[in-house]
């Protein structure tokens, strides 16, 4: 079994042992082919990617030599029937029973999670996210082809995490929902859907203080990146959590509410509101904060 890894550094393992001797250019060729499993990549396109628009005149022979050496290092045969084949249309990598690519498995598990139901779908989502733990093509940080692929996969991971968190919240798996939602916002701090799922998971678990702190994180990210406040849905959820009990009906509850955290957040909110002077007594904070929030639409 040959395992090709694209998350983190590009790597190749055969029966558990790393295949040594691949140069940086050869690993990049493998990465480009693995992004398009089963589809030939023309030599000219490979050359444009590898040499960033300025390939040498002898690039055809150079690429053929690279691929020949790659097959030898990976223990693969040559020819059109090879897993790493040379065709008239270019080079093609075809994963199958003997070759697996972590990105291909991520996509398969993601599709299974999206069409599945219940806890099995949640488990598939979590398994896919685990595969995508590292940075895609991390050893190629600046090449345009790698940046495009990384951005696309990042969007896929954020979407999968967000949908998985929503599913986990619906199943009452609040810790798992929190984990998935946190991974989403770590990759995309502006994904409000993921922030809301994180807030809901914390609130449903009986930790209202953490949910309100999470909203503060969202607000900071929005201010820093966009100079704007969170959207209406996020503000509505924040206000609902702020004015409701420690947890919604039927959710898990803790023995005591995080009073200290709540009071600190309320005081901070009032200090940020223009023209508002926070009351000295903690007992008056909630009443004043709710009035200000309702008036300002914040």
TrEMBL record:
It comes from Nocardioides aurantiacus. Residues 1-95 form the OmpR/PhoB-type domain. Residues 1-95 bind DNA. GO terms for biological process: phosphorelay signal transduction system; regulation of DNA-templated transcription. Signal peptide: none annotated. The keyword Hydrolase does not apply. One of its GO terms (molecular function) is DNA binding. This is DNA-binding SARP family transcriptional activator. The keyword Ubl conjugation does not apply. Keywords: DNA-binding, Transcription, Transcription regulation. InterPro entries: AfsR-DnrI-RedD_regulator, BTAD, OmpR/PhoB-type_DNA-bd, Sig_transdc_resp-reg_C-effctor, TPR-like_helical_dom_sf, WH-like_DNA-bd_sf. Belongs to the AfsR/DnrI/RedD regulatory family.
């Amino acid at each position: 079994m040959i395992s090709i890894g694209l998350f983190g550094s590009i790597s190749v393992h055969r029966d558990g042992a790393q295949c040594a001797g691949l140069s940086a250019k050869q690993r990049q060729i493998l990465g480009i082919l693995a992004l398009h499993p089963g589809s030939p990549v023309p030599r000219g396109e490979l050359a444009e990617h590898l040499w960033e628009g300025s390939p040498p005149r002898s690039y055809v022979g150079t690429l053929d030599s690279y691929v020949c050496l790659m097959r030898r290092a990976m223990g693969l045969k040559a020819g059109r029937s090879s897993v790493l084949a040379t065709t008239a249309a270019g080079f093609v990598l075809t994963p199958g029973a003997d070759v697996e690519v972590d990105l291909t498995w991520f996509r398969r598990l993601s599709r299974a999670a999206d069409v599945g139901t219940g806890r099995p779908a949640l488990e598939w989502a979590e398994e896919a996210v685990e595969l995508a733990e590292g940075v895609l093509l991390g050893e190629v940080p600046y090449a345009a082809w790698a940046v495009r692929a990384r951005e696309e996969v990042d969007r896929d991971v954020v979407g999968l995490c967000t949908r998985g968190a929503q599913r986990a919240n619906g199943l009452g798996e609040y810790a798992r929902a929190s984990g998935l939602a946190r991974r989403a916002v770590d990759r995309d701090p502006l994904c409000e859907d993921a922030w809301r799922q994180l807030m809901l998971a914390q609130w449903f678990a009986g930790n209202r203080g953490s949910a309100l702190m999470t909203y503060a994180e969202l607000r900071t990210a929005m201010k820093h990146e966009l100079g704007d406040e969170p959207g209406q849905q996020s503000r509505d959820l924040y206000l609902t959590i702020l004015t409701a009990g420690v947890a919604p009906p039927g959710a898990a509850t803790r023995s005591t509410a995080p009073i200290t955290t709540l009071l600190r957040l309320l005081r901070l909110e009032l200090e940020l509101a223009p023209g508002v002077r926070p009351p000295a007594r903690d007992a008056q904070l909630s009443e004043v904060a709710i009035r200000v929030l309702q008036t300002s639409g914040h």
